[in-house]
Amino acid sequence: MSYGPPRPIARLLLTPEDKEAPARARRLLSLGLGEHADPALDVFADHLAALTGAPYAMVNFIDENRQFFAGLHVRHRVTLERSDDAKPQLGRYMERDHGFCPHVVVRRKALVLEDVCDYPRFAGNPIVDEFGIRSYMGAPLIDSSGMVLGTVCVVDVEPRPWGRAGLETIKASAADLITRLERRGVDGLPLF
Question: Can you give the pTM of this predicted structure?
Answer without folding.
Answer: 0.83
